[in-house]
Amino acid sequence: MNRRDLLKTATAAPLFIPRSAWGANDRPTFAAIGTGNRGGWLHRTFQKLGAQCVAVCDVYEPYRERALKESPAGAKAFVDYNDVLALPGLDFVTVGTPDHQHRPMLYAALQARKDVYLEKPFSMSLDESREMVARVRATDRIVQVGMQRRSMPFIHNARKLIGDGALGKISLAKAMWNWHFDVPLRDDQPSGKLDWDRFQGPSPHRPLDPKRFWWWRGFWDYSGGNMTDQGTHLMDVVQWLTGNSSPRSAICGGYVANARKGEVPDVFTAVFEYPDMMATWTLNYASAYEFDWSITLQGELATMFMDRRGYRVVKDPGGSAQPWTASPPKDLVAEMPDKDSGELHQQNFLDCIKSRREPNCPVEAAAAAVAGPHMANLAYRQGRKISA
Which domains does the chain have, with CATH numbers? Predict the structure, then answer.
């Protein structure tokens, strides 16, 4: 069987149950905790997929009021997530808040016996990851972490292709994300009511600094920066497709190029060592060349290039005695044009809260995915190699 035939017969495992599996009077109810950019998208998506929103919660009044308008009549709005979790008849919550709130909100939801859709990155540190995994596994709750590529059919097919030996032994994985992200950090006062103390939560409490609210991902108090934001997605795919867990070591170099009012680097390269391969993770928010995300997996038989449009596989010419005199080979042996859709991941979670089966991104996978980026952040901030 050649690679084209293999691709034609390869099918991803079923990723979701049709929505009709939910009866007309059996719609799951949920509350959206955090309704800003990503949290607002989750709020709208779960309603689109048939779940019923009964409450929204946000520390910023304009976000909260917007989400309430996008909810059914009778939904309630809250500032304190503990008040949300006290509601009777609530099936699950979404947590789409800044990273530093993930752990306390997850623990509170588990204590209230709610299932949880938790946005990535899973944690703020390696120690947090270990503790959070243990806490989840001490319950019977369904927790899905928002690494949506684990629910995309073309990535499942790519994984099968690699497992069937299409690339041979993989020596190097290269993950990249390029955006020309030159919008200045906002520094204007929020126009609506903001509960700044609740926003800060477990982080060090500081006087209100508007840019820390508008672009919290630019500050170490509230996130792992761009490293864990996009890196959690891509390093998860790299590890999942190559059969690796977290790396043995990490080094990182980078700097703040455009977002100079922030603390986290917006141009960097991290290098990860695994038992039988290496990986690099490069982000450049100062250039749109090769725009958006991509992953290249270089094997001894072939190389796979993947982005949000699908994947392509080309044969390796082989043999160091055959020096390259022109462009890389164009011998395409497999391809799967597609597009990445995040909604399948939310659908998988809805299916799992009904079936009580393990979701596509369990907490162990989420912890392993963010481990390398956490190590790279330590390497960057301490100026040394970090070993597991």
Answer: 14-149+344-362 (3.40.50.720), 153-340+370-387 (3.30.360.10)
